[in-house]
Amino acid sequence: MLFETSLHPYSLHRLPVYAKNGMVATSQHLAAQAGLRILQQGGNAVDAAVATAAVLAVVEPVSNGLGGDAFALIWIRGKLYGLNSSGPSPKSISLEKVTASGHTEMPHLGWTSVNVPGIPAAWAELSKRFGRLPFKNVLQSAIDYANNGYIVTPTIARAWQRAYERYHPYKNDPLFTPWFETFAPTGRAPKEGQLWASPAHGATLKKIAETEARDFYYGDIAEKIAAFSNTHNGYMQLEDLAAYKPEWVDPISVCYRGYDVWEIPPNGQGIAALSALNILKGLPPANRFDERSYHQSIEAIKLAMSDASAYVTEPRCMPVSVEALLSDEYAAKRRALIQDEALEPSHGQIERGGTVYLATADDEGTMVSYIQSNYEGFGSAVVIPGTGIAMANRGCNFSLDANHPNRLEGSKRPYHTIIPAFLTKDGSPIGPFGVMGGFNQPQGHVQVVLNTVDGTLDPQAALDAPRWRWLSSKKILVESHFPHHIAQALAKRGHQVQISMDPELFGRGQIIWRDKTTGMLIGGTETRADGAVVAW
Question: Residue 40 — φ and ψ, nearest 5°?
Answer without folding.
Answer: -70, -20
